[in-house]
Amino acid sequence: MEPAVLKALNAARDERRAVAVVTDLGDGRDRVVSEDDAIPGELGAAIAEAFRSGKAAPVSVSGRDFFINVHLPPVRMVIVGAVHISQALAPMASAAGFHPEIIDPRTAFATPERFAGIELSADWPEMVLAQRPLDRWCALVALTHDPKIDDHPIRAALEAECFYVGALGSRKTHGRRIERLIAAGADPDAVSRIRGPIGLPIGASTPAEIGVSILAEIIGERRKSRSAPV
């Protein structure tokens, strides 16, 4: 691999950007393509599909053979609220290839015993996210029902263009949440992206079932809207 290509890959990794190395199999030349680069035609479509799937693939375009190798940032699932649903969701998310993180300033809930093996921060989301900012490779799941805890990370997720933003609560609760966020200065168009009530409508009632519905919704959103690896 050429030093310039390796340097570009290292920079993309550090900046949590998606890139692909497109190799012309005819002459062996590599070029690094960003997720946001506009590549026309069949090659561009193949690169877009590689970003979506997260899988390397060969492709033939107009008699020329290429190999597309994608390099994608790990997907973070930031779960606000160390609740029963989180206890079910976090290990399932990990098994599905996400990197789950729990944030909850309520130290009675945010204990290592309840979340063994899961990254856990018993602090306010404002403090945690200042150190580990959200980006579009993140899914934000707000589960506390407490505006003092949930609202800031929801706004941060919208501003960071996280590929998924969901919040627990009834339609009435979600309506009040939208009103608060808009009154606090959030973009109404961005607020409309929040999934609330959270999760696919599968009739879930137990914490584990709700966790399944949330994870399924996140996977579906990730697959249809952004290139984030699972």
- N-to-C order of helices and strands: HEEHEEEHEEHEHEHHH
Rg on CA atoms, Å: 20 Å
Count of discrete structural domains? 2
Q: For this structure, what is the CATH class of the largest domain? A: Alpha Beta
Assign the CATH superfamily of the largest domain. Answer: NAD(P)-binding Rossmann-like Domain
Q: Give the uncertain stretches in residue-range form.
A: 225-230
Judging from the principal axes of the Cα atoms, what is the shape? elongated
Q: Characterize the largest beta sheet: strand count, sense, and whether it forms a barrel.
A: 5 strands, parallel
Strand content: 15-25%
Spatial gap, N to C terminus:
26 Å
Q: Please give the CATH architecture of the largest domain.
A: 3-Layer(aba) Sandwich
User: Could you report the average pLDDT, rounded to the nearest whole number?
Assistant: 92
Strand neighbour order, sheet with most strands: 7-6-5-8-9
Q: Please report the total strand number as a whole number.
A: 9
Tally of individual helices: 8
CATH topology description of the largest domain? Rossmann fold
Describe the structure.
With 230 residues, the protein is of the alpha/beta class. The chain folds into 2 domains: 3-71, no CATH class; 76-225, Rossmann fold, CATH 3.40.50. The protein contains 8 helices and 9 strands. It has helices at 3-14, 41-53, 84-95, 125-131, 147-159, 171-183, 188-191, 207-225; strands spanning 19-24, 30-34, 57-61, 64-71, 76-80, 99-103, 119-121, 138-142, 164-167. The strands form 2 sheets. The chain has a 5-stranded parallel β-sheet, with helices on both faces. The chain has a 4-stranded antiparallel β-sheet with strand order 2-1-4-3, sandwiched between helices. A hairpin with a 2-residue loop joins strand 3 (57-61) and strand 4 (64-71). The longest helix is centred in the C-terminal third of the chain and has 19 residues, at 207-225. The chain is elongated. The protein starts with a helix and ends in a 5-residue tail after the last helix.
